[in-house]
Structure formats: C-alpha cells, structure tokens
Amino acid sequence: MAWRNLGRNRTRTALAVLGIVVGVIAIASLGMAGVALEQQATSSLGGLTDQAIISPGEDVDTDGITDAQAETIRDILPGVTVIPQKTNFTELSARNGEEANVQVTGLTNSAPLYDLSVGAEPTRLETGALISESTAQTLGLEIGDPIEYEGQLFRIRGFIASQSGFGSDGGGELVLPLSALNDQDDYNSVTIIAEDGDAATEAATTIEEHFNEDDDEVLSVTTYASVQENIRSFTDTLELALLGIGSISLFVASVAILNVMLMSTIERRGEIGVLRAVGVRRDEVLRMILTEAAFLGVVGGLVGAGGSLVVGVVMFNVLAGDPALALAWSSSRYLLYGFIFALVASILSGIYPAWKAANESPVDALRGS
Amino acid sequence: MSVIQLRDVVKRYNTEAETIEALKNVDFHANRGEMVVVTGPSGSGKSTMLNMIGLLDTPTTGEIFLDGRNITDFDEDERTEERRSQLGFVFQDFHLLPMLTAEENVELPSMWDTDVDRRERAVDLLERVGLGDRLTHTPDELSGGQQQRVAIARSLINEPDILLADEPTGNLDQDTGKTVLDEITRLKQEENIAVVSITHDEQLVEYADRVVRIVDGVVQ
User: Structural domain boundaries of chain A?
Assistant: First the structure.
C-alpha cells in the first residue's frame, strides 16, 4: 500500500528521494574525503617518519649547533645516524646565461638523505658536489661539469632526484663537502635518522631531556612523526566540519520529505477518513504513512550510498593513488552512516504527518474531502 | 432484539457563539433484515444521527447498544474495532481508493487482518453485485454505478450486522440509482443485515421497510 501511495505522484516522490540522495552523497563523500586527505598526507610523509631535525632552540645565544653539541648528540643516541649540516643560499649562474637560486648544504654523510637519479652515491662526500636534477636541467649542467661556490670549484658527481610531497624543498639544492662552508663555525641543523617513527620520537625525547633543562630550549627537535600528528588532528577537525556541512544538507532533505509527506496526507484526507471509518485503527494508519516515509529514506539512502561509493573511489584515486582504499572500513563506514542517517531522518520527518493523519476524526476527514 | 439501538441520545456542540443541539433525546432502532430510511431537511441532524449509529461519533448524553451490548463508553480504538467487524459504510462519493483495483478495494477493510484472507469473499461479493468481470479494474475504469456497487461489496467484506448508507444514490442518475437500490435490498435479505440509509431521494423511500423523519434534531 505504501509503495503504491508513493507511486501516485511520481515526480514529487522522485524529487524528495533526490533530496535524500544529495544529502547522503554529501555526508558520505565529505566523510570519505576527510579520510582520503589524511591518507594522502600520511603516505607522503611515510618515508620520512624515521627522521628528526634538530635546530638551535629559542633560548640559546649562538645561532648554531656547536661541534661539542653534535658530539654529545652522537654519544647519547647510539644506533642513530647523526648528520650535522651547514647551510647557506647562493645564486648559481651557468654558461648558458641561466641563473638559479639554490640552498647550499654542507655535510659529510649524504647517502641517507639524498636519492640520486644519476651518478654514484658517495659513501663520504669529501670532494665534488651533488645538485638537484631540476636545477641541473635549468643550468644545462651535466655530470662532471664544474660548479663554483665561494671561489672554489666542485665537480658534479650526481643529480638529486626530484621528490614530490613533504621533505623536499621546491627550489634547487646544492650539496657540498662540509669543508666548503668552513667560514661558518657552527652547524645550522643536525638531521638524525632512526630505525622507525617510534625510535625517532624516542630519540627526540632523549635529546630534549638532555639539552633542554628548566624550560630553556637549547635545542629544538622536529620529528615528522609530530608533523604527522598535527596533520592528523587537522584532518580530524576538517572531517568534523565536513560532516557538519553534510548533515545540514541531509537536514534540508528531511524538510523536503516532511513537506512531501504532509502534502500527500492532506490530499488524502478523504481516503484516510474512509480507512478509519471502515475500521482501520489509528496506529495502522500511522504505520502506513511512516512506511511511506521510510521507503523514501531507503531508496534515497541506497542510491546515495551507491553514488557516494563512486565519488569515493574517484577521490581516493586522485588524492591517495589507491582507489581500493575507498572500500576500507575507515572510509566505507561513511556509506553506512549516510544510509542510516537518511533512513532515520526520513522516518522522523514522517512522524508528524503520520500522527496528524491518524488522529483526525473520520467524520471531519470525510466531510472535508 | 434490535441490532442497533439509540436511547435518549443527545448531541451537543459548543461553538464560540452558542451551543447547538444537533440531536435532542433521540430514540432509534433497526433490526436485521429491515431497511430503515432516515429523511429530513438539511441540517436536521440526519448526518449526525448516522455518525452516532456508525460509531464515528459519541453522544453527549444517552446510550447506544450494539447487538444488546452497551457500547456508549467505548474509546476510539474499541469503536474502531466494532466498525471493522460489525459495520459497513456506503458513501455518496463512493470513496474508493484510486490506486487499488475493484477487488483490492473490496478487501480493503480486511487488509490489516493478517490472519484472515478475504479474497474469496471479495470475489464472491463482486460477482453477486454483477461485477465479476471487473475485478482488476481501477475506479477510473468504472462508471458511477459500478463504483457504488464496488463500495457496497466493500461494506460487506467483514460480514457486518449493519450497513450504513449516506445518500447512496446522490451521485447517480435515476436508473443507476434503482440498480444500486435493488442490489442493496437483495443483499440485505441474503446477508440478513440491517440497512440504515439517509437520503433526499424519493426512490429510496419506496424500498424502505420503515421511514424515520427527523426535523431539528427531533425524531418525528
């Protein structure tokens, strides 16, 4: 009966269902978007969580990390790779007239930090230079070409592969032996590489406890793991906001259903009066109309969930490169939430019209039709 | 014993302006196998009395007996139950559900009784009113007279004791009206039920076993 009643005004029913579909897609897609964004962020960071960067703290007079401090770091972190670095900026010019701004990094142990696309990875960088692939292309440089820095010449031994995501700077980088930056006494930063994310976090804590007593920040340590935490809490907030928006959309759809049900029951006053006159009980009438509302919710919810799945697969493909992730519980649960939300919202919207119809006196209903 | 009895029934309405007494100390009864026709001018209280008999409304004072049982103080759900099992209704406007077939319309009052299948009786009733070949037609495929006959069949689906008709021929032409009245009379005898009908139609009076005239809420 409920099904046929809905079929009487197909356009109106279809529009109400459409409202629910949009609402469900809004909630489910936005929910999944939050998950996808988090996925993208953490996967970009993925390879770097075992690293931490130590730089001079806020409360220190010198603007660098001393040799002594670097030694201490090595001592208190056995099993951790410690790479002190000196950095500067310069502008390189090439024979072809092109110029490029690069960050100059002086260190000894280059292998753990830089992947080379061309050239052999040196075990210790004592001579020669490494340069970003993109910068080399801009300046028309090849392996073996000389690079001048502060009056010294260095021969290019390898190109640093371009990286996307976090951990790479957008501009070019020139990596030279530590001796090239001898005019600087202290190190600008020290990068440490531990076994994994947890070990890196532990190492960070060890350093902070050793160096930073009494709220004096001598050394500041940043782990990618902590960056990841920040991102996660950001995306959590973002998710809530998106869900809020999606909920508003579904609320609007509920109002549409309320309107449809109300109009439908008012139009059917006479019929409902007849039902009551021939002995259909009030609760039976109520259930009939609630069933109609529930149908709208079920159909809208299913279509919406289907649509959201499509949107989700596309999103995960674009943002995280892995469309199958859309089916994982952390994201597909939003499909379920969307559906349940639609069903509940529809039934709630149907309560008032159903109650009104069921409790009208048959005499009035029959007379008024 | 009468199947329906109204004893000293008063119906009072309170509006903002005044108090209206639609029925004033009305006595009424109807027996099985008889057709009682209630006539009277507009606003005389005919409809109100029919609503009383049909348990669609409750008296302000007075008593109503159904098959000897005092049902005056029945609540809405109890009265609904009595309507379902003891009463059948035929309206001037037929009031069939447009999206149901003739057969489904006839079964309608029993549709919520999950333990009972009235399909056979529905088909039987439709055949008895001459619509055996129209079982799957929807109301828009039926003439006025045919629709009213479906309504009559519907009114009998739950084997009631009383059939209440509110201007049953009001929307029908003379000949069709006669056909419908013939049907009602025949079924009245076959099913041994009481028929109470209000009407302005002179024709009905000829079919009546008894005529009750009501003016200004008073039975004459």
Answer: 2-44+229-367, 49-223
Residues A163 and A114 sit within 8 Å (Cβ to Cβ): no
- Render the burial of B28-38: b for 16+ CB within 10 Å, e for the rest: bbbebebbbbb
Structural class in CATH, domain B4-219: alpha beta
Q: What is the mean pLDDT of residues B3-26?
A: 88
Record the pTM: 0.69
For A305-338, give the DSSP string. Answer: HHHHHHHHHHHHHHHHS-GGGGGSHHHHHHHHHH
- What are A156's strand-pairing partners? A129
- Name chain B contacts of A5, Cβ cutoff 8 Å: 99
Q: In whole angstroms, what is the distance from residue A154 CA to residue B148 CA?
A: 106
- Residues of chain B found within 8 Å of residue A271, distances taken between Cβ atoms: 95, 97
The average confidence (pLDDT) of chain A is 83
Per-residue pLDDT of A244-286, as tens digits, reads 888 888 788 888 888 888 888 888 888 888 889 988 889 988 9
Sketch the domain layout of chain B as residue ranges: 4-219
B:68-87 residues touching chain A, CB 8 A cutoff:
76-77, 80-85, 87
| pLDDT value of position A163 | 65
How high is the pLDDT of residue A46? 65
Three-state secondary structure call for residue B196: strand
The secondary structure of A66-126 as a DSSP string is: -HHHHHHHHHHSTTSEEEEEEEEEEEEE-TTS-EEEEEEEEES--TTT--EEEEPPPSS-S
